[in-house]
Amino acid sequence: MSRNLLSFTDKLDVRDPQCIAELADGIFRNMRRDELIDKLPLDFLSKTQVSNEVKDTSRAFLVEWIIDVHRKFRLLPETLYVTVQLIDRYLSKKQIKKT
Fold it and tell me: In the chain, how many H helices and how many E strands?
């Protein structure tokens, strides 16, 4: 991809080799496609978890704590998004006991 097609944020990241700014467009297109294919239903907690164990408020407290940790260590936003996605996928597959 030529540098003229890079977004403003990608232009800022060109100097950082870990950001792979040249490949960002294709990466984000693939991620968006995969996100639409693998989308979780909105009510995945109520379908998977026992009603008196893990509720949406429990998930909210966990995500809030993860956000605090994310801010403390000044991680990239993508790290937070992937972490929440992994937690949601796990909660959609396994029943969790509060204890």
Answer: 5, 0
Taking only the tens place, the pLDDT of each residue in 62-78 is 999 999 999 999 999 98
Give phi and psi for 74, each to the nearest 5.
50, 55
| Integer angstrom CA distances of residue 82 from 47, 61, 76 | 22, 17, 10
Residue 70's identity, in one-letter code, is: H
State the DSSP code for 43: T
Q: How far is CA 44 from CA 24, 91, 92, 93, in A?
A: 31, 8, 6, 9
Per residue in 21-30, pLDDT (tens digit) is: 778 778 888 9
| Token pair 């379908």 in the structure block, residue | 47
